[in-house]
Design goal:
Layout (H helix, E strand, L loop, with lengths): L4 E4 L3 H12 L5 E3 L13 E3 L5 H7 L3 H7 L7 E4 L5 E5 L10 E3 H9 L4 E2 L4 E8 L2 E6 L4 E4 L1 E4 L17 E2 L2 E8 L2 H4 L1 H7 L3 E6 L2 E7 L5 E8 L13 H11 L5 H9 L1 E5 L3 E2 L12 E3 L2 H4 L7 H18 L4 H30 L5 H10 L10
The structure holds flavin-adenine dinucleotide.
Amino acid sequence: MRHRIAVVGGGPAGLTFARVLHGHGCPVTILERDPGPDARPPGGMLDLHQGLGQLALEKAGLSAEFEALSRPEAQAMRILDTDGTVLRDWRPRPDDRANPEIDRGQLRDLLLGPLDVRWGRGVTQVVPGARDGVLVRFTDGRQETFDLVVGADGAWSRVRPAVSPVTPHYTGVTSVEASLDDIDTRHPALAELIGDGSLAVYGVNRSLVAQRNSGGHVKAYARFRAPLEWHTDLDLADDEAVRSSLLALFDGWAAPVLDLLRRGTGFVHRPTYVLPVSHTWTHVPGVTLLGDAAHLMPPLGAGANLAMLEGAELAESIAAGSGDLDETVRAFEEQMWARAGRWAKITTAGLDRLVSPDPAEALAVFDQVQPSDTAERRR
Ligand SMILES: Cc1cc2nc3c(=O)[nH]c(=O)nc-3n(C[C@H](O)[C@H](O)[C@H](O)COP(=O)(O)OP(=O)(O)OC[C@H]3O[C@@H](n4cnc5c(N)ncnc54)[C@H](O)[C@@H]3O)c2cc1C
C-alpha cells in the first residue's frame, strides 16, 4: 500500500528526505512556506562531513554532483589574535575531502532537482489522531490529511507541538551577520587576509569569523555574549547604526580585522537559540521531526549534516517498507535521538569555549578538531 507522506519544510532535512524517497520511487508531498526557491537569500556556506552530510548525498545518488560543486580548498582556516598576529594558518591537502564547503543555494538546487515542491504552503498546525490520518492545517485556511507528517520546518517548527511542548531557549550568545561582495576586486586586502576558506579571531566573550563563499562573496559573523535585548536602543535595519555599535563592541581589535565590519553590509541579527540537549518525546503515531525541528543546537558545523543524514535514513527505512510504517518511524527516532544527543553535547560545549572569557579555549578547540598531522601543514 502507498502511504500518504508529507514533509513540512524544504530545507536540508526536508529536501534530502524527499529526494531519497523520490529516488526509491516513493511519492512524497513537500510543503514549503516560502513562495519559491529564491524567495530569500539562502545564507552562508555549509561544510558537509564525510559520514554525515556527504553520506546523505551518497544515499541520494548525488555524490558526483557534490564533488563537482563543493570547494575542498574552503576548508582552510586562519586564526588571528585580536592584534592581528597569525596564530594558526591551516590549509587542507588537495585530496582532503573531509569537510568540503558548499553554498547553501547550490545545495538546495542540487537536492531540488526533479522534486515537485508545493511552494507557499505554510503549515499552521498538525493534529494527530484525526479520523482519516494526521490533519495538516495551512495558513490559507485549507487542510489535508496524511498517514505520516514529517516536521522538517526548522527551529520554530509548527509540527513540533504535535509531539513535544518544548520550545527553543536563548543561549546568551548572539551574532550579527554581514555580507561582502566581489571581495577580490573591491577589498583585495581583506580577500588576502581571509584566504580560500575561513578567518577567525577570538577575543574575550566575542569573536569575528569570515567565510569565503563562491563567487567572491564573503559572510562575516560578529558573535558575542549579550542579553537578548542588547539592541533595544538600536535600529537593526540601519546598517550604519549596527556598524557603529559593533565597532564599539570590538574596539581595540586590529584595523584589518575590523575592516570586515567597516566594509560589510546587510547586517542580520541572529541570536543563538537551542533546544535542550537530548530532546526526545513520547512517540506519536503519524508524526515525527527531523533536523533543527527535532534538535536545534549551536551552529558549529553539525546541524545541516545531521538534518540531511536523518532525512536520508528515514527515507531509506520507509522505502525498504519491511514493516509497519509506525514501527519504522519509532525505530528511526531512537537512532536519531542517540546521535543528535551526542552532537548537541559537543556543540553546546563548543559554543561555551568559542565564545569564552578565555580566548585560548577557542584555540584549543581548533587544535582538538583538526587531525593530529595538521601541525606540519601549518605555515
Ligand atoms: C550562521 C550559521 C551557520 C551554520 N553553519 C553550518 C555548517 O557549516 N554546517 C552545518 O551542518 N550546519 C550549519 N548550520 C546549521 C544549519 O543551518 C541548520 O542546522 C540546518 O539548516 C537545519 O536544516 P533543517 O532542514 O532542519 O531546517 P531549516 O534549514 O531551518 O529549513 C526549514 C525549512 O522549513 C520551512 N518552514 C518553516 N516553517 C514552515 C511552516 N510553518 N510551513 C512550511 N514550511 C516551513 C522554512 O522556510 C525552511 O525552508 C549553521 C547555522 C547558522 C545559523
